[in-house]
């Protein structure tokens, strides 16, 4: 029987290697290994909205899906990142409706957004941690100070290009890191 490992959302930041991509960072609560997942702009936006008090003027896809599930009495009980192949993460969403539990295949980013919206736990297994987990480092490339500096540069660039959606996301991430450093 495979051992399940609970993950927490550690953060979201702009990808250094890919433009218009973001790095979603999950952390194993037991070993503190980190799982970096590269996601696109729309997935990053959905995660930012799910973890903040921001209310879009109209429901986004994940909001609509959540309302539909709740309208039919369906709750998301957990999300399970069950495998990773060629840097692509696979997930299952465990749903419950009045005691009837079912699992559905999902993209990892969508599953994580829904877990956040339903306040459901996110799990993985030892195999995924062995393949994709990285130990936290305190080196200069991964320090919060350097990450903050990089985010501020990307923010200035986004404003210069009049990419205000990305700028708003970067502003929020900078604010979150600033608050994290202060306390």
Description:
With 183 residues, this protein is of the alpha+beta class. The protein has two domains: 6-136, Bifunctional nuclease domain, CATH 3.10.690; 137-183, no CATH class. It has helices at residues 41-50, 61-71, 108-118, 126-132, 144-160, 164-182; strands at 4-14, 21-28, 34-40, 75-85, 88-97, 100-107, 122-125. It has a seven-stranded mixed beta sheet with strand order 3-2-1-7-4-5-6. A hairpin with a 6-residue loop joins strand 1 (4-14) and strand 2. The longest helix has 19 residues, at 164-182. The model has no long low-confidence stretch (mean pLDDT 85).
**Cα shape:** globular
**Looking at CATH, which topology of the largest domain would you report?**
Bifunctional nuclease domain
Strand order of the largest sheet: 3-2-1-7-4-5-6
What structural class do you assign from the helix and strand content? alpha+beta
How would you spell out the order of helices and strands?
EEEHHEEEHEHHH
Number of DSSP helical runs: 6
Number of domains: 2
Low-confidence stretches: none
Percent helix range: 40-55%
Q: Quick one: CATH class of the largest domain?
A: Alpha Beta
Strand content: 25-35%
Amino- and carboxy-terminal Cα gap: 40 Å
Query: Radius of gyration, Cα only, in angstroms?
Result: 17 Å
CATH architecture of the largest domain: Roll
**In this structure, how is the largest beta sheet organized?**
7 strands, mixed
CATH superfamily of the largest domain: Bifunctional nuclease domain
- Would you report the number of β strands? 7
Instruction: Report the average pLDDT across residues.
Output: 85
